[in-house]
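RECORD TYPE: inverse folding
INPUT: structure tokens
STRUCTURE:
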């Protein structure tokens, strides 16, 4: 596996860029990494800006978002990729959010449910990595002798015993409707998503495209597929188009000197805690805001 440090969604920026990003994220709030929280936050963002969820199989363009949400997504994916051990789990939260799906319990054979479809999600650093479908010892106890005879589950699928392969595959794939395998593209501006239906993945596995899992062939019940899945044109391929945020966009989003002065003089020490868009609204509608404040004060005295 290539070193994760080399994976950067965005080019290095100067100190002004980093300073602006930090200040804006402090005001607008980062998208949390844990999938249970991120799925809910992302659902709200998508519904607010798009009005409907994305559909499974279509491209997910995040570059159309409002600047402050582009900032949040840029930070989210930058953090997501750097967390090597949990990035796959947390990517499930992103998909659940943009598709309007639900997360399943940890340990299930599938990870999210979208419109009644149970989907197993895999996220990898590189398209050349083997894809670990799972470890199935707990559900294949009745086939211990058969699997042992072939040394491992992966080698069973290299055999000519189609009946055995089909029986085992039916057990492994039960309740799973599809597999979504994701990885970044070569210039690291998109995430490529390969979606296999149960039938498509079954055909791929049953024709011997299995390899040793993470622990090698010694891990009898692990099942992994080789990287040639990216060459198969029978499945759906879609993309997550990642947002790009320039320093100029950040400058426009942040408070300018006049807005900073206004927020400090009007609101005192809490002025720097108020979002730029809120300050702009107050400045542009100061007469109405003042009227509302006066009416509110009168109302509360009654």
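DESIGNED SEQUENCE:
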């Amino acid at each position: 596996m290539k070193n994760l440090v080399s994976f950067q969604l965005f080019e290095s920026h100067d100190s002004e860029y980093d300073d602006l990003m930090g200040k804006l994220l402090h005001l607008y709030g980062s998208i949390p990494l844990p999938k249970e929280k991120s799925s809910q936050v992302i659902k709200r963002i998508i519904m607010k800006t798009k009005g409907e969820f994305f559909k499974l199989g279509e491209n997910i363009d995040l570059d159309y978002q409002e600047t402050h949400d582009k900032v949040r997504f840029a930070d989210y994916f930058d953090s997501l990729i750097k967390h090597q051990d949990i990035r796959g789990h947390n990517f499930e939260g992103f998909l659940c959010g943009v598709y309007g799906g639900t997360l399943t319990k940890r340990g299930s054979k599938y990870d999210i449910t979208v419109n009644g479809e149970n989907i197993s999600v895999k996220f990898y650093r590189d398209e050349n990595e083997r894809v670990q479908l799972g470890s199935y010892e707990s559900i294949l106890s009745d086939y211990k002798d058969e699997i042992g005879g072939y040394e491992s589950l992966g080698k069973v699928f290299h055999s000519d015993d189609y009946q055995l392969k089909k029986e085992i595959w039916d057990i492994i794939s039960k309740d799973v409707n599809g597999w979504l395998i994701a990885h970044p593209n070569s210039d690291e501006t998109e995430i490529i998503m390969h979606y296999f239906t149960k039938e498509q993945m079954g055909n791929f596995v049953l024709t011997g495209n299995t390899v040793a899992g993470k622990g090698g062939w010694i891990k009898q019940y692990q099942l992994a597929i080789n990287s040639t899945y990216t060459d198969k044109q029978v499945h759906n391929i879609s993309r997550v188009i990642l947002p790009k945020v320039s320093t100029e966009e950040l400058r426009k989003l942040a408070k300018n000197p006049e807005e900073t002065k206004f927020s400090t003089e009007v609101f005192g020490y809490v002025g720097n805690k108020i979002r730029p868009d809120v300050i702009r609204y107050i400045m542009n509608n100061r007469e109405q805001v003042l009227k509302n404040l006066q009416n509110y004060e009168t109302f509360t005295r009654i």
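NOTES: The chain has a mean pLDDT of 89.
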